[in-house]
Amino acid sequence: MGERVPEKAGRQFWRAGFFFVGLGLAAAFYGGFTLFAGNMPEEEAAALSVTASPVLWNPDDWEEKQTGKLRFIAGLELSSDNPDFGGLSGLWISPDGTALLAVTDQGNWLSARPVHTGIALSALEAVHLAPLRGPDGQPLDGKAMQDAESLALGGGLACVSFERVHRISCYTHEEGTIGPYAADIGLGALKEALPSNGGIEALAVLPGKETPPALLAIGEKAGEDGLMPAAFLSAAGVKTAAIRGKDPFSITDAAFTAKGDLILVERRYSPLSGVGLRLRRIKASTLNEEGPLTGEELLNAGQSYTIDNMEGLAIRETAQGRTFLYLISDDNFSAAQRTLLLQFELIE
């Protein structure tokens, strides 16, 4: 939901039984996991003309590159004359940095080819937009069904969470495209904890190559106990997760590093203080601990920095051991907001 504003942990989870061991077992253990295939009409995604303008991290201090434990590498403000461009939530970038996917809260998916100059993101090319589809192969109909909020890829599937009609739908995925509808994943008790317009904002695939993937799903709004509604979803069932929220922030996305650390993106907004961005890391070694998980703060930035309604996170790790974080913002299709794509490097 957007706000309108001016290797170790994986092994631990697998030993605990939170993994899929194949579609057959998933169907046997996971109620509601029904497969469909080949039902999307042959149709090329529509090409978009998108302008990518470089932005500074701190307009008041051009030399500032490192904030918290993140080093700013590059940033782009994206714009297009196409009225369907915008509302981007959820983000994925291929390990080699040559393919990008995002989803929109109007029921579309967007693909692009990122261009890097050296290590720095410098442009987007070959941008296309196409509708997400339902089990009948038709585009999703109406805002209640179209409101996509997060995207996670694994095991040959692209899984998308939706709010209003709370669900996680998975699609086939190949070479930087989203294909036919494949399955809906049952949410169990997690669904009852999600308010009408406060659904699953963050969706992350646990490290591994299982098909379908094991997921961590996190709701947007903390309960009265200060905990975010969250659960691990797997063939073994739905296991509640305890993640501590921190007012006035709301979690908007999450992703795992290859080592199994969980990175959380959080947003805040108020008319007085404006928009804010926070990133947290929950170490792999603590993910199985009892009690609410809090983690360490990596970044805390206010509106003096180049941020907006940041809603999507992708992590790309290189063979040289460098970890890059990409963040994208949801402009809510508002002229008062921007679509930003920011690239950082995690500094240890």
TrEMBL record:
Q: Where's the Phytase-like domain?
A: 84-333
Top-level taxon in the UniProt lineage? Bacteria
Q: Which Pfam families match?
A: Phytase-like
Q: Which residues cross the membrane?
A: 12-33
The UniProt keywords, alphabetically, are: Membrane, Transmembrane, Transmembrane helix
The record's listing under InterPro entries reads: Phytase-like_dom, UCP031900
* Protein name, as recorded: Conserved protein
Q: Which organism is it from?
A: Tepidicaulis marinus
